[in-house]
Design goal:
Number of helices: 11
Largest sheet: 4 strands, antiparallel
Oligomer: single chain
Strand content: 15-25%
Shape: globular
Number of strands: 6
Radius of gyration: 27 Å
Helix content: 55-70%
Strand order of the largest sheet: 1-2-3-4
């Protein structure tokens, strides 16, 4: 009987040791799998950041042929090329990418990138900060592309809502506001910068108007965000009266563009872009 008890005791110890080994192996496997996932995600984020930096390098180098790798729509590519050529006539030098934050989307095939840039200009002692959110997708062949229109990718409403939530998150909004504040401070302290922004805005508008009639251009803009570039002498009331038909809409414009304008609605800087479509909704 004692011999049987000893055998049972040994078996119990062996089972216990076996269970401990299994649990330890499972834990190790989970940690190892997690590390692999993190490494893969880190590699993807690095790949996306490099893709974005190459895009801005193509713009800065004036390599408009390479832009076709990022903008596949011929009309959009032509417009972007015209804009950049117009900027070059005004002394544009380069876009320097200061920071890129990557936000993976749930389906693992799309990412949002919040990009902070600095635009440098000849004979301008300061660089102009900016921020933009870019959506990146991956094709079936594994290559990356810029999603210019979410609707064209047949994304579901729930998916688009998730994108909207990320873009409105505190982190992303705060980063955008920081860049907007820096931009406003630079314009406030540098009259030359204000003059250049106005000059660049006029040059781009002229370049586009020479190719498209106003009607055709407005048709191309239909369904997209309608922007208004602030000009010298503008105020929110005059903009609302001119663009929306009633000066009383100035509060709607302000609320829709608070992040760009700042806390003082009476202080508008020449060259900032206001989204009027949201204000008119």
């Amino acid at each position: 009987m004692k011999y049987q008890n000893a055998i049972l005791s040994d078996i119990a110890k062996a089972v216990t040791v076996l269970l401990i080994c299994i649990i330890a192996y499972q834990g190790f496997s989970q940690c190892e799998a997690g590390s692999v996932c993190e490494a893969r995600e880190g590699k993807e984020e690095k790949e996306i950041e490099e893709y974005i930096r190459e895009y801005y390098k193509a713009i800065s180098d004036g390599d408009f042929v390479s832009l076709g790798e990022y903008i596949t729509d011929e009309d959009e590519l032509e417009e972007e090329t015209l804009r950049m050529k117009a900027l070059r006539t005004c002394g544009f030098v380069s876009y320097d990418v200061e920071d890129v934050m990557i936000y993976p989307l749930p389906d693992k095939a799309y990412w949002l990138a919040h990009v902070c840039t600095e635009l440098t200009v000849e004979d301008l002692d300061v660089a102009l900060p900016g921020a933009i959110v870019i959506m990146i997708g991956r094709k079936e062949d594994g290559s990356l592309y810029m999603v210019r229109d979410a609707a064209s990718d047949d994304l579901s409403e729930d998916f688009i809502e998730e994108i909207r939530e990320i873009t409105l998150s505190d982190e992303m909004v705060d980063r955008t506001n920081e860049q907007a504040a820096k931009y406003n401070e630079i314009l406030a302290d540098n009259p030359d910068a204000i003059e250049w922004v106005q000059k660049a805005s006029d040059a781009q508008t002229k370049a586009l108007s020479e190719v498209y009639t106003r009607k055709a251009y407005q048709e191309r803009m239909d369904g997209e965000e309608e922007s208004y570039f602030v000009k010298k002498g503008d105020c929110l009331w005059s903009i609302a009266e001119q663009e929306l038909g009633d000066g009383m809409y100035w509060t709607d414009i302000y609320e829709a563009n608070r992040a760009v304008i700042g806390e003082n609605p009476d202080l508008l800087y020449v060259g900032i872009s206001l989204d009027l479509r949201k204000a008119a909704e």
